[in-house]
Amino acid sequence: MTGSRPTTIGELQARLRYFVTDASLEMAARFRPRPSDVIITPYSKCGTTWMQQIVHGLRTGGSMAFGEITEVMPWLELAHDLGQTLDAPQVARPRAFKSHQRWDEIPKGGRYIVVMRDPVDAMLSLYRFMDGWMIERGAISVEDFAAYFLQRDASDSYWEHARSWWRRRSDDNVLLLSFEGLKRDLPGVVTRVADFIGVDDPEARRIAIEQANFAFMKTHAGHFDDHFLRRVTDRAMGLPPDGEATKVSSGKTGQGRVALPNAVRGAFADKWDAVMGAEFGLADYAALQAELARDI
After folding, report:
1. Can you spell out the DSSP letters for 144-158?
2. What digits encode the pLDDT tens for the residues 196-214?
3. CB of 199 closer than 8 Å to CB of 191
4. Where is the Sulfotransferase domain (predicted)?
5. What Cα–Cα distance (Å) separates residue 294 from each residue in 156, 177, 244?
């Protein structure tokens, strides 16, 4: 570990091996959720923090009495490394947790909320999130990062994550939503989430809608900036402590299709065809969104 930020994809991959310990992953694998537990498990940069804020607002009636949201909603995979006990009492019911795991990895027995997002937008959001924190700002091009994103191992793959949860979309304990749907109809999505996790209080629903809008979360960005996590992970990965990262970005959709060259967009379309198209007959992400709309 050099104390500098990676400047190549190879260096980034080497550092990411230290992001979470095997012991922490083993503790997560041994966890047995209660039937009422809610596990929010989208792919990275697909609306996880947004959904955490919705669920926490619903279950607490809008409490913002936390320094960073991971403190009150443990990340399954990182909890042990962060000194948290997964079976410890939480500030409200239902208990709620964050994860990024696929169906075949996730501890079984709880209730699961998965937010889907256009893979190009997810990639670009992850790139912007890492640039200046896990990557030396400007050192890795978005084209090189896109190539890396397309070939990530199964445990970190957007497509393996999407495939695993799409297979479970009819399960009673799984709620599949879309990032774009959150943008389009936040009150409607909050209502669906409240029904799914068993929060009937109309006032809690109203407050959760108000506190999940972009302006509110941007104003309270320090509650969602991963500082609780980074005090451990930055040291483990050998990163300088002054990196920049924010979970509350522009909140826009469709940005990747504007910012990326045709060759990159074509590679993403080919990958989609090979995974989601081949197994489910979904021509593209728009077709997935249309299927989700029919589930409402």
Report:
1. HHHHHHHT--GGG-H
2. 999 999 999 999 999 999 9
3. no
4. 35-220
5. 29, 11, 40
Helices marked H in 48-141 — which ranges? 48-60, 119-130
Q: H-type helices in the chain, by residue range?
A: 9-16, 22-30, 48-60, 119-130, 142-150, 158-166, 179-184, 186-197, 202-211, 214-219, 227-237, 255-259, 262-272, 278-280, 285-295
295 token code pair:
């589930």
Collect all residues with Cβ–Cβ distance below 8 Å to 291 and sequence separation of at least 6. 282
Distances (CA, A) of 32 to 27, 106, 129: 10, 10, 31
What residue type is 49 in one-letter code?
T
> Residue 281 contacts by C-beta under 8 Å, 6 or more apart in sequence?
none
Q: Which residues contact 132 (CB under 8 A, 6 or more apart)?
A: 243, 244, 245
Domains present along the chain, CATH in parentheses? 9-295 (3.40.50.300)
Q: What is the CA radius of gyration of the chain?
A: 18
131, β-bridge pairs: 135
Q: What pLDDT digit, counting tens, does each position of 97-110 carry?
A: 999 999 999 999 99
Structure tokens at 103: 């169906």
Which residue from 193, 173, 205, 235 is spatially nearest to 33, judged by alpha carbons? 173
The answer to whether the peptide bond before residue 35 is cis (omega within 30 degrees of 0) is: no
